[in-house]
Amino acid sequence: MPRMDGRATVGSVVRAGTAYQGKQGPEYVPGVSAETVGARALWLGSVTLPAGGGRTKAHVHDHHESAFYLVSGDEVELWTGDHLQHRELAHAGDYLYIPAGVPHVAVNRTDTPAVFVGARTDANEQESVVMRPDLENRVP
């Protein structure tokens, strides 16, 4: 139940929301967010990178941290840094962390979709997305 200020006074079970395609490319399914439960500083949901070259577009969240847990998938490349010069490989069971203000791209070149559970310190998830088309060609 919400209080007079709109904040919840009890916990709740949240059903997955309707999937949508984010500005940065992949499909997102919201769970906990400003829209679903009135969250003020947290977005939690799932993200799927399709098989065979599925990727995000180059982007940044200027004031929000992001974290992901790779639930399933073979291998995902995480490109980060001012010029997307840093590359790491993630496998199922790995966690990914992207600090606020750090440009990033995730790429799935395998034949298996990559499914993540993700969290961001932005309850409105898409509002903080700043696209970086100037970096798009830096990731092969």
TrEMBL record:
InterPro entries, A to Z: Cupin_2 (IPR013096), QDO-like (IPR053146), RmlC-like_jellyroll (IPR014710), RmlC_Cupin_sf (IPR011051), UCP037087 (IPR017102)
The name this protein goes by in its record: Cupin domain-containing protein
Pfam families for this protein: Cupin_2
Top-rank lineage group of the source organism: Bacteria
Cupin type-2 domain mapped to chain residues: 47-117
CDD domains for the chain: cupin_BLR2406-like
